[in-house]
Amino acid sequence: MIMTDNAHTTRTAPHTTRTAPNTTQTAPHTPATAHDHAPRINFAKAAPKAFKALIGFDAAAREGLDPALVELIQIRASLLNGCAYCLHMHTSDARKAGEDEARLHMIGVWREARRFFTEKEQAALALTEAVTLVSDGGVPDDVYAQAARHFDEPDLARVLALIFTINTWNRIALSTAKVAGEDERTAH
After folding, report:
1. CA dist., res. 18 & res. 126, Å (int)
2. Three-state secondary structure along 29-51?
3. Residue closest to 129 by CA, chosen among 69, 58, 78, 94
4. Residues β-bridged to residue 27
5. For the chain, how far is it from start to end, CA to CA, in angstroms?
6. Which DSSP state fits 129?
7. The whole model's pTM is what?
């Protein structure tokens, strides 16, 4: 679907319908923009201990992992979660770190663009999808086994922890209506 409003043209994927509890009526989910929201809580200021704990967990998760792989995982999860704030942040970080523009464009369709990614990266992307979409059927044994073939146990644990943290960051950004393009990391 293409949506236009005077100055902007955006492409959006078709949305699934959600059924409201105790009704038979369905309506398409229309994502809200940051401009649609009243001001929301500043999570870092309101829960500083929780915020700092998450920063520590995130830092521990990425320790020893290839920085390019870290960004691929964070970008893929952010795409799946529809988190524009984190997607903008991590694609910007990847570009600054020298990531190839073509690979950034292919992350969302990596299965059809496998030549852009190593087998190890593909295993991490598949695991990222399974963990991020865990309610759609869990983490399949074959996906886990593929990741375990490419990562030793400590690295696999860190990859999983990184997937957990980016999903948490996505949920914080979405629930507090963070605006894409406003990188607040330097404020902390």
Report:
1. 25
2. CCCCCHHHCCCCCCHHHHCHHHH
3. 78
4. 18
5. 38
6. H
7. 0.78
